[in-house]
């Protein structure tokens, strides 16, 4: 376009060229190409470590209490909470799930350490902790890993006990449908592992947004829009 005197005129608002818009997080804050993911919110760390630590404490305390009350396996008959179906019976699992891999406790301990490291890296290095469901599920799994790892390392075992128990896991919860149809005894750590795994399976069938940080509520969005309107006037 020419000015009235014939000189070329440049529009003040004309774009000098097209460029890709900057990366933005859900709340609109800019993200760098070298670090494309926003920081992990503090509440994810709190939630994960609270579940892991409190879950492990609950597991270890109940194991200690039940074994102190009922003694080592075989010393006392089951204490029934629901006669014939639900009870308390101490047992030591020297294998993995359902006794598989009996006598390989040290191997399972090593696998547990690797799994714990992988969980932490996945959540807080790869930033999967942006998803609430993953944070909660893996917090439960970590609590279960810590509780059973303590036993796998033989930290509960004392001289004079059966040597096979040194890398075994203490169990005390008994479920059965009849005297011939029993579920293998388990503990709080096992329950945490199962709950965490169930949530992960649910997520695999019903995926969520890659980032589901807390969204601003409607009032916050309204206030933000009002501030934008005032700034544009």
Automatic annotation (TrEMBL):
GO biological-process terms attached to the record: proteolysis
Molecular-function annotations in GO: aspartic-type endopeptidase activity
Residue ranges crossing the lipid bilayer per the database entry: 42-61, 82-101, 107-125, 132-150
UniProt keywords, alphabetically: Aspartyl protease, Cell membrane, Hydrolase, Lipoprotein, Membrane, Protease, Transmembrane, Transmembrane helix
Biased composition (Polar residues): 21-32
Record-linked Pfam families: Peptidase_A8
EC number in record: 3.4.23.36
Keyword Protease: yes
Active site per UniProt: 171, 190
Pathway the protein takes part in: Protein modification; lipoprotein biosynthesis (signal peptide cleavage)
Basic and acidic residues: bias regions: 214-233
Reactions listed under catalytic activity: Release of signal peptides from bacterial membrane prolipoproteins. Hydrolyzes -Xaa-Yaa-Zaa-|-(S,diacylglyceryl)Cys-, in which Xaa is hydrophobic (preferably Leu), and Yaa (Ala or Ser) and Zaa (Gly or Ala) have small, neutral side chains
Membrane topology: Multi-pass membrane protein
Region (Disordered): 1-32, 213-233
InterPro entries per UniProt: Peptidase_A8
Subcellular localization(s) per the UniProt record: Cell membrane
GO cellular component annotations of the record: plasma membrane
Similarity comment: family membership: Belongs to the peptidase A8 family.
Matching PANTHER family: LIPOPROTEIN SIGNAL PEPTIDASE (PTHR33695)
Function of the protein: This protein specifically catalyzes the removal of signal peptides from prolipoproteins.
Name of the protein in its database record: Lipoprotein signal peptidase
């Amino acid at each position: 376009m020419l000015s009235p005197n014939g000189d070329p005129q440049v529009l003040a608002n004309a774009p000098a060229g097209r460029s890709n818009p900057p990366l933005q997080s859900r709340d609109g804050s800019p993200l760098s190409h070298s670090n494309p993911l926003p920081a992990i919110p503090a509440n994810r760390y709190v939630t994960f470590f609270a579940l892991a630590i409190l879950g492990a404490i609950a597991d270890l305390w109940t194991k200690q209490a039940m074994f102190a009350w009922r003694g080592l396996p075989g010393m006392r008959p089951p204490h029934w909470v629901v006669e014939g179906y639900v009870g308390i019976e101490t047992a030591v699992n020297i294998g993995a799930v359902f006794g598989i891999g009996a006598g390989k406790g040290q191997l399972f301990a090593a696998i547990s350490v690797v799994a714990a490291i992988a969980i932490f890296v996945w959540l807080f290095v790869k930033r999967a902790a942006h998803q609430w469901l993953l944070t909660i599920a893996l917090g439960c799994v970590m609590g279960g890993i810590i509780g059973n790892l303590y036993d796998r390392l033989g930290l509960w075992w004392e001289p004079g006990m059966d040597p096979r128990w040194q890398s075994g896991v203490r169990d005390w919860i008994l479920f059965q449908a009849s005297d011939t149809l029993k579920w293998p005894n388990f503990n709080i750590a096992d329950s945490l592992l199962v709950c965490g795994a169930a949530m992960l399976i649910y997520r695999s069938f019903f995926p969520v947004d890659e980032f589901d940080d807390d969204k601003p509520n409607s009032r916050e969005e309204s206030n933000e829009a009002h501030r934008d309107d005032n700034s544009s006037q």
